Amino acid sequence: MPIAARHGLPLRIDRRIIESENQFEGVRVGGKEGAIRSPKNWRLLVNPMRPSWGEPYSEIATRMMAALDSARLLAAGHEAVMVSHQLPVWTLRRHLEGKRLWHDPRQRECTLASVTSVRYRGDEIVDLTYAEPAGALLPMAQPGAGA
Question: What is the mean pLDDT of residues 70-97?
Answer without folding.
Answer: 93
